Amino acid sequence: MAPSSSPIVTDSLDPSTPTETLDNDLQPFFVLHKPSSRRKDRSSTGQGKQRKRNELSSPQNTKKQEGSVNEECDYHLFKPLQIEAFNSVWSRIESTIKDVLRDLNSSAFKDIQRWILECFNAARLHGEPNITEATRSFPILSNATPGQLSAALVITRNIEFVDDILTFEELGHFLKSHGCHVAKLSSVDFSMKNGIAGCLKALLREFPLGEIDSADISILASWYREQDNNNKPLVLIISDLERCCGSVLTEFVLMLSEWVVKLPVILIIGVATTVDALRNALPSCALQCLCSSKFMIGTPDERMDTIVEAVLVKHSTTFNIGHKVALFLRNYFINQDGTLTSFIRALKLACLLHFSMEPVSLIHGHMLAEDQKDWISALSPEILLKYMDEFPSYDRSQIASQAGKSIAQGLSDLITEKKLWSTAVLCLCEAGKYSKVRLLDLFCEVLNPDLYPHRDSVCHIRNEKDQGLSSTNGHSQQYSSVQTGGLIRQIVRKVRDLPTGALGQLIKRWEKLTADISEIHDKLKTFQSSVRCEDRRSPRKSSKDISKRYGSKASLDADNELTMLNLQAVAFIDCLVRNYMRPIECMPFHEISCFKNVEKLQVVLIGDPRRRIQADLLDSHKILRCSCCNKTGNALLPSRQDSSILYSLAQEHGDLINLHDWFQSFRTILHQTNKRKPKSKQSPQPKKRKDTAGSGDQNEASIQARFCRAVTEMQITGLLRMPSKRRPDFVQRVAFGL
Amino acid sequence: MDKEEEAPQIPRRTRRSSTSSWASTSNDVSSVKVNSLEPQTINDLLVGGEPVSLDDLLSNFPGRNSQIREIVHLLGPLNTPMLPLFVYGGASTGKTSIILQLFRHLNRPLVYSSCRTCYNPRILFESILNQLHLHRRSAANGYSNAKRCERPSDFVNFLREALTNAINNLKEKSEKLMSSKTMRGGIGNMIYLVFDNFQLVREWDKSSTILPLLFNLYDMLKMPEVGLIFISNSSPDTFYSNMGYVEPIPVYFPDYVEADIRKILLRNQANPKLYSSFLDVSLRPFFRITRQINELSTAFKPLYEKYCEPLSDKSIVPNEDMKRRLFSHIMLHVSSSLNEIFKVSSLPLSKVESSKETTQKGTPRKLEHCEEVAKLDFHMSTSAKYLLISAFLASRNPATLDASLFDSKGGSDNRKRKRKPSEKVPEKKESLEEELLMKGPGSFPLERLLAIFQCIVSVADDPSDEEEQNGFGLGVEGACGDLMSDVLLQLSSLCNAKFIFKGRSCPIEGSTRYRSSISEDLALKVARSLKFPLSSYLYKRT
């Protein structure tokens, strides 16, 4: 989704350069060398997202490599097939996501476009200046009050901006295809450094004006007035208001408003937080030039839900994630950074990891082709069988392991079961909309395999009681108290209390959802027919709402009927939960398409580099595995890496480290070597002594140099801060604890 | 039409490949566009339009009688030299429009340049020269200027050359006119250079060269046929002006009084009677806040619509009874929009429109909207929220109190402890608080922010875990550890959203300092969404 994330993945996919990437990318996490450019990047607090991506790229590669190295011998054969499978699956998912997001925005886009047309026509109504008027330098004289710039504030409602880059890009395309001149400016163009000149230059660059050496808005005005350009509205999109430099934006708005009659620019301003942002950014003189209206586009929550629905629920046959992974992704989204971009990237990583780790996953790509016999013949069935035997779910399901045929049977069962599952989840989600249950949360709960057995047993109890269909409130309460699934319980409770009209709508939507799945649809039909029977029994059938209003007895009747209907609906939900909502992890053969390894994903997504650096510095011997340190364990040996020694020594200090003490202890440790080493080596003593005596000064100097270098390295990695002017002989520790 | 559309595109394409040979291609272009783009003549320097009489002009600008007469007097009759003029006054007091209308009335050529549009000396110079050379920038000439001019000295030379040309042109023309017809006056031999928004020039390169140059232009050119008019927001005293050039004659445009504003606002109304009854109600309170015509008119536009809402026929002449009814209808809106205009004038409009949209879309939306008011209506990750709260605390509380607020027991205990001294010396407290308010949010180093963040997260972690369990039924594993992991990223995105400002590094300590700029309201909203007891951590308000 994000433009820079794709090269990363293709990079790691490339099988030709495994060793190189291995070497390069391991560096920053294990060994401290000279500060490489990447590490500098990290220590400076610069562009957040970019930095993150850099960091992300490396662990991913390493992980991928590690994974494949372990299993290389076994699965070497399947490598290209796996890549192919991944590509086909991911391209499917990606296109789904794109379509879904576009559909989500389309109504807002249409609103904006309608508004633009209104503004444009309103401006034209006041009369168009001809080209001579428009290109003159002085403002057009009219008795009317000076016109205002029309500005649409598109509120994206997410503090993180990454997701909306794409949104505004699409908005631009959309408007362009609907006959507008569109120019896009971003906050980069409104920088203090370049001032108004930079932003005008960027503006003019968006139009086919040729080479222009001094950016001047009058050029745009004359362009707009000649050659029938003024038949179309001129739209200017400023995508991220918050990051723009306020003073430059003010100047720009004032200048545009000076030209508003000659050059009726329509502004579209992306606001990440609230309308107040504009109020804070611009002074009142600029604000009064704007005639603004507000547009909302979907919140990240809504967008997230649609993505989850489209990718993980509706297309659950293609690729799925286990409960823990889902939970991790949800928490990451809510707690860490609420961007779809990172969620989609995480999904992609999960997909990649899945295909690289799970050998049988490649069946998948073929399953997609819906040619189920082909894949069996394409691979040797013996190997497949071998792997499949290892599936825990395979054992559990105890399908007779005769040959490929039964496996094929199992797989097609899996597919149908998943389809049922996704329909059931969608129905549940539809019901959940009344109690404002988020699909993401529901999804996590539904996937939880721990809850499943409870749910099952609960349903059995429920089933017995259902026979009588005489469930009173007490029953329902008992039911809800027994059931452990929080959200499902919530939904059920809500459905029970739903008014008739809403319930009717819900049932209609259920019908639509289940139209393709005959199994559930039939259930719904029987449930509906039973309701109809009830209806027929009651005299006032279609006029429930009216009957509700008149008379106490009639309303009582209606209430009764209402509860009946509601109970039926609850029973339907119950049936869905009981029969079709087996968590994916409990289905046989789910390993083929389900990614469950949350630890790997966690490591890949949350690098936590600083903690890693600290941990690795403290026990570098475990990573380096050199012969000398191996024997002595944790003791500080001079042969250890300098910064590692220094950091271990620093552990003894508080947040301030006396440089002199630190150096002294460092020196003693190094000297300790000089004494010990010769002994262990059993080399002729006098010679060694001479060496040390002769190069004593030089040794001191080199120790100092090593000390300095190690301290600098630790500063670069952000573990300590150099001495300040106030306390020249102390360094300050910045990072504490692991 | 098709032909017209196609033809100009071809030469443009060729021009892009052959860079500056537009002269050769301009032939075929001119054949197409000759109808719309005639070459400019000296008449294009006139304001043009219908001629207006002085009386019309005076009646069009209520309250500007004396200023108009003064300027007319200073400009003098046709072909009389004049000293530079410095017109100044507050925003939207009619300076620019009066000058332009005056020139329309006098029918004399002027070269107008706004220093806002011409945002640097070079563009200013080139724009003036373009106008004098009667040069129009178009696709045909690649939007190039008549003369390339960057240095002030070049400008003076070019300007003199262009002015002599133009004046000779004018002289020829007026001679012709004299001989052929005795029309009304003719356009004379004078050319007037008008510099609008002149106060902005002060900011260009610290006004070291351009300001003296422009003020000195009159002396340097020594051409009696050139008149200079500067229009500025600020008085001539604010320009550095003891440089030995001829001081321009100041003309001051004072702010309008209420009666003038009334007249101006009534000028183009469809139903003046109704509008005047509207103004009876609303002008007085607004006048206390602003006297700028454009601010007032933008504020009144939606308000007047509100005022007319109960009326079916807008051309009705209101009687006393109806006025009273309308008054009671509008009073509420006046007071609310007064508040709005005080902060932002653009907002009432946007609010009106957005509420309209919601009503169109039906009631459920609207209800939702009402609910959302109290809630935080944009997405922020949990750790960003905590970080924002800690930044708010760090900015608000003095650093010395951190230790007592965030000890191991958490905030609730300390509150009691803190209250005792505050009861003892309330006066001192008050003055302290006032001082705090005056100072605004304080700045803090990154370390303090992170320390507070960690405290908050660890304190809030225990109860929040339970709540999460109750609310969602989803086990939140290691929420605390997760929250801590990329704080710096969150910080940078908060900085981007302008919730936290990153200051320059402190000269003594050498580290960057931050400052949180959010309002207490927003902080409370964020805290509420986290169920974080913010108020118990705030140092203040006894």
TrEMBL record, chain A:
Residue limits of the Origin recognition complex subunit 3 N-terminal domain? Answer: 42-362
Where are stretches of biased composition, namely Polar residues? 1-21
* Assigned keywords, A-Z: DNA replication, DNA-binding, Nucleus
- Report the Pfam families cross-referenced here: ORC3_N (PF07034), WHD_ORC (PF18137)
Residue ranges constituting the Origin recognition complex subunit 3 winged helix C-terminal domain according to the UniProt record: 610-736
Asked if the record carries the keyword DNA-binding, the reply is: yes
Can the keyword Cell division be found in this entry's annotation? no
Cell location: Nucleus
**Predominant localisation class:** nucleus
Q: Output one GO MF annotation.
A: DNA replication origin binding
Q: Which InterPro entries does the entry link to?
A: ORC3 (IPR020795), ORC3_N (IPR045667), ORC_WH_C (IPR040855)
Example GO CC term: the record gives: nuclear pre-replicative complex
User: Per the record, which residues fall in region Disordered?
Assistant: 1-69, 673-700
Q: Which GO terms describe its biological process?
A: DNA replication initiation
Biased segments, Basic residues type: 673-690
Q: Which family does it belong to?
A: Belongs to the ORC3 family.
Q: What is this protein called?
A: Origin of replication complex subunit 3
Species of origin:
Arachis duranensis
Source taxonomy: Eukaryota, Viridiplantae, Streptophyta, Embryophyta, Tracheophyta
From TrEMBL, chain B:
Origin recognition complex subunit 5 C-terminal domain ranges (all copies): 380-538
Q: What molecular functions are annotated in GO for this chain? A: DNA replication origin binding
Q: Please give the residue ranges the record annotates as the region Disordered.
A: 1-28, 404-432
Task: Fetch the Pfam families from UniProt.
Answer: AAA_16, ORC5_C, ORC5_lid
UniProtKB keywords: ATP-binding, DNA replication, Nucleotide-binding, Nucleus
* Localisation per UniProt entry: Nucleus
GO biological process per UniProt: DNA replication initiation
Q: Which InterPro entries match?
A: AAA_16, ORC5, ORC5_C, ORC5_lid, P-loop_NTPase
What region holds the ORC5 lid domain? Answer: 275-328
Record field: compositional bias (Basic and acidic residues)? 422-431
Show the ranges annotated as biased composition (Low complexity): 17-28
Please state every residue range assigned to the domain named Orc1-like AAA ATPase. Answer: 60-217
Q: What cellular-component terms does GO give this entry?
A: nuclear origin of replication recognition complex
Family statement drawn from the similarity comment of this UniProt entry? Belongs to the ORC5 family.
> What is the official name of this protein in its record?
Origin of replication complex subunit 5-like
Tell me which species this is from.
Answer: Arachis duranensis
Q: Highest lineage ranks of the organism?
A: Eukaryota, Viridiplantae, Streptophyta, Embryophyta, Tracheophyta
